Amino acid sequence: MRIMGLDVGTKTVGIALSDELGWTAQGLETLKINEDENEFGFERLGKLIKEYNVDKVVVGLPKNMNGTIGPRGEACQRYATEIENLFGVPTILWDERLTTMAAERVLLEADVSRKKRKKVIDKMAAVMILQGYLNSSMR
After folding, report:
1. What is the Cα–Cα distance from 34 to 102, expressed in whole angstroms?
2. Which helix (H) or strand (E) holds 119?
3. For residues 18 and 94, what is the distance between their CA atoms, to the nearest angstrom?
4. What is the CATH number of the domain that holds 30?
5. Quick one: which of 85, 86, 84, 29 has its CA closest to 59?
6. pLDDT tens-digit profile of 119-138?
7. Residue 139, pLDDT score
8. What is the pLDDT of residue 108?
9. Would the CA dihedral through 27, 32, 35, 40 be positive or negative?
10. Which structural domain, as residue segments, surrounds residue 131?
11. pLDDT tens digits, residue range 29-67?
12. Which of 107, 121, 125, 126 could covalently link to 112 via disulfide, CB atoms 3.0 to 4.6 Å apart?
């Protein structure tokens, strides 16, 4: 049983995957998308879901600090619904407030250059989203 974690943005989707026991999250890749052109990367996502036998997808839900959901959160909700419709796997929306900032901090502490950070930040945020979900479901 593998779980996929997604950090959905307007230009990229960070993708993470759990181990088969559902204990740890590892970064898989960053998928380029173009929300303005209605290019959401669903074909590639479908291949990954099939290849890794994913049976659940956790999608980061960016809430405002007061807990409300804005336009970006609504876009993530639509993305999650589309995944369920296209691939028949359940999706869970996971509060992702501050995960990108936390990922940035981890990369800064690891002394990763700005150029390299830009390439991996979304994948790292997906790892943090998925690991948060995995940790909460172990209780």
Report:
1. 25
2. helix 114-137
3. 15
4. 3.30.420.140
5. 84
6. 677 888 899 899 999 988 76
7. 53
8. 73
9. negative
10. 2-137
11. 999 999 889 899 999 999 999 999 999 999 999 887 788
12. 107
Q: What is the DSSP letter of 66?
A: T
Query: In the structure, what pLDDT confidence band is assigned to residue 110 with cuts at 50, 70 and 90?
Result: confident
Provide the 10 A C-beta neighbour count for residue 10.
11
51-108 tens-digit pLDDT? 999 999 999 998 877 888 989 999 999 999 999 999 999 999 998 876 766 677 776 7
Cross-sheet strand order for the sheet of 91-95: 25-32, 12-18, 2-8, 54-61, 91-95
> Could you give phi then psi for residue 111, rounded to 5 degrees?
60, 40
> At a CB cut-off of 8 Å and minimum separation 6, what does 11 contact?
32, 33, 34, 35
What are the structure tokens assigned to 16, written together? Answer: 């993470």
**Structure token pair of residue 59:** 């999608």
Q: At what angle do helices 71-87 and 42-51 cross, to 10 degrees?
A: 50
What tokens were used for 73?
């959160």
